[in-house]
Structures are given as C-alpha cells and as structure tokens.
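Collaborator request, handled under Task 6.
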Amino acid sequence: MTERYRIAIVGAASLRGKELNEALSESPFTTSEFSLMDDESQQGQLESVGDEVTFIQRIEPDAFTREDFVFFAGSEETTQKHWKQALASGASILDLTYALENEPGVLVRAPWVREALGEGAGDASAVEPDLATPAIVPAHPVSVALALIFARLSEVAEVKSASATVLEPASEYGRAAMDELHQQTVGLLSFQSLPKQSYDAQAAFNLLPVLGEAAKINLGASEARIRRHYALLAGETLPQLAIQLLHAPVFHGHGISLALELEQAVQVEHLEAALGSEHIDVVLGDTEPPSNLSSAGQGDLMVRVRTAEGGEQASKRFWIWAALDNLKFSSLNAVACAQDLRRLRPKGKVQ
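Structure tokens returned to the collaborator:
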C-alpha cells in the first residue's frame, strides 16, 4: 500500500515556503495531501502543489488536527505562535525558521552528513528522533555543505587547519530584504535616498561583516548559527573550522571561500576525486567556475579546487570555492529530515 501523508506548510507564501513546496512535490512525498498556510495577508493566494492548484489558508485553531508533518517556513514569530498547536495535534514538526532550536529536546539534523560519515561516526547529531521529539531543525545549508566537504576530504588526508569566509545572499532573510536590496540598487543608480528598514546600512554594491544598529537582520546571530550547527554535525569526527560571514549584494546563492592546510601533500585530482560524490558536483578548472548564478536551481553543492600556490604540483595548502542555492539546498535537507521521520509514521493519518 502506498504511504499517504497529510503535510502542512506554514509560511507557504514565503521564499523558503515556495521552494519547500516544490521540493516536496518532487520527492517521495508527492502523493501526500498538502495544506498551504500563512498569515491573513496571504490568505486566498493561489499556489500550485505538483500538478494541482490550491489556496493558501489561514491558520485556524484546528488547522493541524489531521496533519502528519508540519513544516514551518515563514517567520520566526509565526513559528513561535503556532508550533505548540501543531505539537499538541501529534504532528512531526520541521522548523526551517530556526525559531525552535533552543527548545528542550529539539534536534538539529542533516541526514546527508550522517550518510557521508557512516552510521555510528559519533557526531553530536547522531541522536535519533522519536515520537517524543518536539521538533526537528534542518541544519543551516552552509553548515551542511561544509560538513559534507570535510567528510569527503577525510578519505584523502587529515586537515591541519581550515577557515571559511561565507558570502550570504539577501534571500536568506526573505522577500523584504530582497526588495530593499533592489530598491537600494535602483536608488544608487538614480542618485536617490536609500531605504534602510531591513539593513540600516548600504547593502547594495557593498560587502558587510555587520549591519546598522537598527537593522532587522542580525549577521552575528546568523554566523553563530552556522558555527553552532557545523559543530553539532562535526562532533569529534570532522576538523574544527573558523567561520566568517559577510553579507553580499546578491539576491540568491551562498558562496564559500574555504582555505585548507593538510597534514600531507596531495594532488588536486585526488581531492577532486574524493569530493565528487552524491550532493557535491566538482567543477574542473577548465570549465566555468561555480557561482551564485550557476548554482541557482541546482540541488547539489558546486565546488572548485586549486592549490594555494596556483600550480599543478602536490601541495598541503588548497583553496576550495563553493556555491549553493541556499533555498533549494535548505529545502532538500528538510525533505531528507522528513524522510528520516517516516519510520515513526509508517502509514500516516490518511488511510
């Protein structure tokens, strides 16, 4: 008998909600019954779920009664307001807003990293969820990407030191941040004043490690989350990593500049061979490099490797440049987390 589930997406009109909707429609959950939910301002909006068109519904008091899975993909405030209602209904909760990661019993998960490391690798995320687990937080996409890279590199050489500079796009913070970046870009080109409600700083044509004091976006909190999630995924198996986060004047896609020093010299092609695997697409040096544009719509992490010296000889020091579609990568990780939870709901509530 085909498994059929009832799945609710809260924040279905958000950028992440739309991407999650698409990812679920292309996953083994495609035969599920979907409910799209959002706040009243988005009520009645039409959205497609696979080949069907449905309305976005208001979140009613009994909205989650029959749901097997509830994905929170809108704002942190909406998650905080409604998650206990979903928990009381007996649904499995997956929080893409990170609002619940400090709640007792909530687990941060990345099944792809578990697979890359092998079962029993000893990472801090190895605790298996059960029906008493209040919620799952899919790990930050950059943390997942970095952990996948180091899991593959461990097959070739031990890492002596590593540091990563992460370039973050506006879409990480939703439509308002993207709109403000666009408005700032137009304003600068036409010598007009700049809107600064989200950034409280000039984000257009600029790279920033911090934003203005009145910014609605907290880059420090985002950087700390990436670091924290990577540490959870790495446990004592993967190397320690220094991470710096910069806000880049782009709309979509993370970029990662990763500096490595290995314990022994290896050839570039050996690193490329180790990295080339499920979820990682190695881009060779004689082709177009990875970028936030080329990674758009791609489900894999795109990487390019070169020696620090720029030559072909074996080296201990390397640069890895990586790019990923932040929304798609995050949504696919969330779907992978939900697939892990299916064992707790072998048939679902739809019979």
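The cover message to the collaborator said: "Residues 145-326 form a domain with the Dihydrodipicolinate Reductase; domain 2 fold (CATH 3.30.360.10). Residues 28 and 339 are 8 Å apart (CA to CA). Please let us know whether this matches your experimental observations."
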